[in-house]
Amino acid sequence: MAPKILIVTGDAAESLEVLYPYQRLREEGYDVHIAAPARKTLRFVVHDFEPGFDTYTEKPGYTWPADLAFSEVDPGDYVALVVPGGRAPEYLRNDAELRKLLKAFFDSDRPVAQICHGPLMTAAVGALAGRHVTAYPALELDMQSTGATFEDHEVVVDGTLVSSRAWPDHSAWMREFLKVLRTKAPVTT
User: Fold this and answer.
1) What is the value of pTM for the model shown?
2) Distance between CA atoms of 108 and 105, rounded to whole angstroms?
3) Sheet strand arrangement including 80-83
4) Could you tell me which Gene3D superfamilies the record lists for this protein (predicted)?
5) For residues 33 and 43, what is the distance between their CA atoms, to the nearest angstrom?
């Protein structure tokens, strides 16, 4: 039986930041599940950078079914966690069920990959204090206010926590996360 990895997300998550790790981790042999506030078809978005805009733009993205509601997840069933970005983390960090899940992964020092605005969720459970992280650069002050050391690099590894800035950093993000997974929760054949 393949080790299971959980992705926690919701509506308005960045399409690429959910689907790239979902597919890459499955390709590696992991059993990947997506959890959201409820079992439903999630509506993702596409964030892009266009000349003349001071920030990213947002367009409708892909839809994808959530396998589980946060309340249905037993965190003990999963070897690792992926926390995508987009706008979803802004409201998901207020979800008590999600906060319980996040805390369980950090309390047991299991591998966690976070990207873009995803660290807003892990910060909500106090998991970033004293850690080195990166995130979407506009979150530098948010990360510092949680007690984290912000580094503007494509990927930052702090123990079992692997963070990246945004979808252009996917290759480095998954490369480093897979190094952690192969040590802490390898797929055996």
Assistant:
1) 0.97
2) 5
3) 68-69, 31-36, 4-8, 80-83, 112-115, 161-164, 155-158
4) 3.40.50.880
5) 16
